[in-house]
Design goal:
The complex is a heterodimer of chains A (291) and B (271).
Chain A lengths: L3 E2 L3 H27 L1 E5 L2 E4 L3 H8 L1 H31 L5 H11 L6 H11 L6 H9 L10 H29 L3 H9 L4 H29 L3 H6 L11 H11 L3 H28 L2 H4 L1
Antiparallel strand pairs in A: 2-3
Helix pairs in contact in A: 1-12, 2-12, 3-7, 3-9, 7-9, 9-12, 11-12
Chain B lengths: L1 H31 L3 H5 L12 H8 L1 H34 E2 L3 H10 L5 H14 L6 H25 L3 H9 L4 H12 L1 H17 L2 H5 L8 H11 L4 H28 L7
Helix pairs in contact in B: 1-13, 3-4, 3-13, 4-7, 4-10, 4-12, 7-10, 8-9, 10-13, 12-13
The chains are: A mainly alpha (291), B mainly alpha (271).
């Protein structure tokens, strides 16, 4: 599409810039301010330069939290994106079943995050939760997410899959419905296989919605906080201490504002770099297919 | 034959997925109709003596139901504000090239990526200084930070699907820009507005950290009410489950209204 050149378009963008800048830039400046000082109390602060940044980068606990979080985001994306697309492919395309399944599938998305944590906290308990009871009493596993690190990890991962696959499925579903029937008819005439239809018709058309889905899922899984905090509180040990849980322990628990601020700036930067890589990669990947 | 069988495999997968999806929710609904004694006693797949006592507490105690009202107020405000200011911006991104447009677009997105834990304190100070602390407006404004970029992104995708010929024809026919925008353009992207409103509502409704930090009494969200009451009265599982069930309902209504827009499909352009 041919776009006109016009700097007057800035006028249309201005309300957005002002409203976002108000909530983004002032707090960000405050955080930068914290990150270069040691704060003992009101009016008692010492300039420390880049000390917090150096400490943060060297902190082994932080590094392990970062690796843990990267692995978690990777696993979550690896399961949620293909599963969401598969579910979207299998959903009815019209009629009342389509409406019903859309409403049901969106339910996990609309539950406040701490309630999601509560649901799974209850569901996984061996005494009062269906899932935990089933695994322990009926299947005879020794499952306990508060004691066993591996159980805790998979509980959080399963919860994330439960919570967020619907987002991928909804977006993919909407993307699939936007493909004109003529494409499918042409494919049928060519006797194309299901795989060929998926690879050359559906997947290229899903690129836009999948880009949003992957980016949102990456950002949110990399910042996951409330749900694991409710279920495991980061434990047992450090097994589910993701970056944001580590960060809030630092900021709220120990009230180390300086290191916490330095850390969150690095954290912020990391998310941006990764998101930018995703953004550019997906923008370029399959550019040829879409046209 | 082969194609039919594969279709069945896919339907089976969807059915299994829905069972997985509904089980934890069913379990919470099930618990919400039980007394605490029954919950902590033997495990049962449905309530033996169904009771509405948990719901009655929520609907009669202002500390509980005001939480719902607060959440609904600020979420609605946030959705209206986000969509309103995102509309002209998304139009600008979809129709014009302007100085720094791509950078601006990515900068907007980066604001979704700020880790909450340390930004909470600056937010708290900022809103206290401008006298908005503990108001619905404070939460609605703060949530714009992550909802406006998303709204611009989604709306821009819908707008790019509308051919520019429509804009040009309207200009030739002597429509002023505002008249064209409200009379012709907005009706054309109605489903996009519906979908955007759904996503902004959703992210504002489920967010807890900022909402809890910026409020204390007058605008306290329901999600925060839940955490406090639980820690105060030990573990009242039945009440907790009932409150949880009630948090699903507003969202379920919203998705019910936009389901047709999603079913109609959208592909989202800007890639």
């Amino acid at each position: 599409m041919e776009k006109k050149k016009s700097n007057r378009a800035w006028l249309l963008v201005l309300p957005v810039v002002i409203s976002v800048a108000f909530s983004a830039i002032i707090p960000l400046m405050t955080v930068v301010n914290y990150s270069v000082q040691d704060i003992f109390g009101p009016g008692q602060r010492v300039w420390v330069g880049n000390e917090w940044f150096v400490d943060t980068v060297r902190d082994p606990e932080l590094r392990s939290a970062l690796m843990r979080n990267l692995l978690f985001s990777f696993e979550a994306l690896l399961i949620e994106v293909p599963l969401g697309v598969l579910v979207a492919l299998g959903l009815p395309s019209r009629g009342k079943w389509a409406s019903l399944s859309l409403v049901l599938i969106a339910l996990p998305l609309l539950i406040p995050w701490n309630v999601v944590g509560t649901i799974w906290q209850i569901f996984g308990r061996a005494d009062i939760g269906l899932g935990g009871y089933f695994l322990n009493t009926i299947l005879g596993f020794d499952y306990n997410y508060t004691l066993n690190a591996r159980d805790a990890w998979y509980t959080i991962l399963l919860m994330d899959v439960w919570h967020w696959t619907p987002l991928v499925a909804l977006l993919a579903y909407a993307g699939l419905r936007a493909i004109p029937d003529a494409y499918y008819r042409a494919a049928r005439i060519d006797a194309a296989s299901n795989w060929a239809i998926f690879r050359f018709i559906q997947l290229p058309k899903l690129r836009g919605v999948l880009l949003i889905a992957v980016l949102l899922r990456f950002m949110d899984s990399f910042m996951i906080y409330t749900e694991p905090f409710v279920v495991t509180g980061g434990g047992p040990g450090n097994a589910t201490t993701f970056l944001s849980i580590f960060l809030s322990k630092l900021a709220v628990g120990q009230f180390d504002l300086g290191p916490a601020a330095a850390f969150s700036l690095i954290y912020f930067l990391l998310i941006q770099v990764f998101s930018y890589i995703f953004f550019v990669t997906m923008k370029n990947a399959g550019q040829g297919d879409a046209s | 034959m082969n194609r039919k069988r594969r279709r069945w495999v896919n339907v089976l997968l969807v059915i299994l997925y829905f069972i997985f999806l509904m089980l934890p929710i069913y379990w919470m609904i099930n618990m919400s109709f039980k007394t605490n004694e029954e919950i902590l006693g033997a495990l049962s797949l449905w309530p033996k003596n169904p009771t509405l006592a948990n719901y009655k507490i929520i609907f009669t105690d202002p500390a509980w139901y005001s939480g719902y009202i607060n959440s609904i107020i600020y979420t609605t405000m946030n959705t209206a504000m986000a969509v309103t200011i995102a509309l002209p911006a998304a139009y600008a991104f979809s129709r014009y090239n302007f100085l720094g447009d791509n950078h601006l677009f990515f900068w907007l997105l980066t604001n979704r990526m700020a880790p909450a834990a340390v930004f909470l304190l600056p937010f708290f100070q900022l809103y206290q200084n401008i006298g908005l602390y503990d108001t619905h407006l404070a939460v609605a404004l703060a949530h714009l930070l992550f909802n406006v970029p998303l709204a611009v992104w989604i709306l821009e995708g819908f707008m790019s699907g509308v051919p520019t010929e429509i804009d040009e024809t309207a200009e030739i026919d002597g429509y002023s820009f505002p008249r064209f925008f409200f009379r012709i353009f907005i009706p054309l992207i109605r489903s996009g507005i519906g979908v955007t409103a759904f996503f902004t509502f959703m992210f504002s409704w489920v967010e807890l950290l900022l909402a809890r930090t910026l409020t204390s009494v007058n605008a306290k969200p329901i999600a925060a009410t839940m955490t406090r009451t639980v820690s105060a009265s030990g573990m009242d599982w039945g009440l907790l489950a009932a409150a949880g069930v009630l948090t699903i309902i507003p969202g379920a209504l919203v998705i019910y209204f936009v389901r047709n827009y999603i079913a109609k499909g959208f592909a989202l352009g800007r890639v």
